[in-house]
Amino acid sequence: MTVGNPVRLIIQFMIPMFLGNVFQQFYNIVDSIVAGQFIGVDALAAIGSTGSLMFFVTGWLNGLSSGFAIIVAQRFGAKKYEDMRHFVAMSIYLMMGFAVAMTIGFLVFNIPILRLMNSPAELMDDVAGYMGIIYAGLLVTAAYNTLAAFLRALGDSKSPLYFLIISAGINVVLDVVLIRFAGMGVEGCAYATVIAQAVSAICCLIYIIKRYPILHLKKENFRLQQGSFGRLLSLGIPMGLQFSITAIGTIIVQSAVNIYGATYMAGFSAAGKIQNIIGMVAVSMGATIATYVGQNRGADRMDRVKQGVKYSWIMLLIWSGIEMLLVYFGGKYFTYLFISPSQTDVIQVSVTYFRTVFWAYPFLCTIFVFRNALQGMGYGLVPMLGGVFELVARATIVLLVAGRTSFAGVCLADPMAWIAALIPLIPYYFYVMKYRQNQSYNIK
Question: What is the separation, in whole angstroms, between the first and last Cα of the chain?
């Protein structure tokens, strides 16, 4: 990504990323669709209420792997291939260690966490069973995220997409078989998700072995070197925390929604999943920017960094306008995917959410541009600080309105969080670009 037209390169890389992210979201979305259509509102509410918690858990692993992959992309852009392989090996150590620790910790504290989230007693068994299986499968989640991140660091965003399409198809089939025919309930959805993710991880590994000799590791690549873990963690932890802090904010909002009961939980869940799908364009563009900026920083092409960020921002602002129209006029009909049109109360909850937040989508899209550009250049602290601003804004709104006003008041937590996140991000990005203007940056 260090040569050629920036717009063309970014779009070519982003489209497979977008489709891949959609299919990755597909797991929980299909679980919700099948549960809502074949089991009922309570099942949709149970699985839907886990979305923010799953985002917290998988977001941490995704953030870590994305942060580690930035260093891999920088070394690849600088053509320091032996150094790149060493950081790939160290990333594997770290990702597996985090996955094992998280599996143990979350299984132990599964019920207490759900109680803190105000999960209704009548849904507790279903929610706890679903999340327990997801926690047990975190190793395969970490494996896929890590391997896919390595491929994207080298500029290959298509292969992870193909593997996700395969595993998403498996997930759909297993969902229907385990719920509709085996009668396993919401736990069947969780088993289907873990098995499908394992397939995608295995496919990634086989593909890397066969097609990417540059990523073939030797014994010496796994030797510990002073400072290697520190370099990886200096980017991985801030990115993981950024995802986690954002997820904590959504968990706080989910906890507030849970107070209103299963109908609101189901409607809020459906709206959130629709918004996540539509928002995947911005998420994918952000991941593309991180890789693009990382490679061009490694090649000392800061002029291309500036161009890429500018054009990406313009494209996302245009897309945010399309998003606004889609959810304002079509949100009601998208909700039919998850619940029968006869469930008018649930559908009205989704419509209320969309009508409350749609105007703030340009702010949300802007976050992904500047946050990921800073991360691609190796700055992890301020993007994480943006997440802290998000968390504070969400928590403040929830504390002020939860249980005191209507559901629409709780919905305002998202727009306020998106605006707050930009307070540190935009000024710091322009400060960094001005500081580096006419200077050459060499990776140490």
Answer: 21
What is the model's pTM?
A: 0.69
Separation CA 291–CA 123 (nearest Å)? 41
What's the token pair of residue 284?
Answer: 């994918």
Query: Which residues does 332 contact at the CB level (< 8 Å), separation at least 6?
Result: 347, 350, 351
Distance CA 335, CA 337 (A): 5
CA distance 443 to 423: 29
Backbone angles phi, psi at 46, to 5 degrees: -65, -50
Our count of domains for the chain comes to 1
Look at residue 1 and tell me if it is in a domain.
Answer: no
Over the chain (444 residues), what is each successive 10-residue block's mean pLDDT? 79 79 66 67 69 78 85 82 88 92 91 80 80 91 90 82 82 81 78 88 91 88 84 82 74 79 80 82 85 79 84 92 92 82 85 91 92 83 84 87 76 90 91 71 43
Q: Is residue 441 part of a domain?
A: no
Residue 44 lies in a domain: yes
Domain range holding 246?
6-436
Residue 443: inside a domain: no
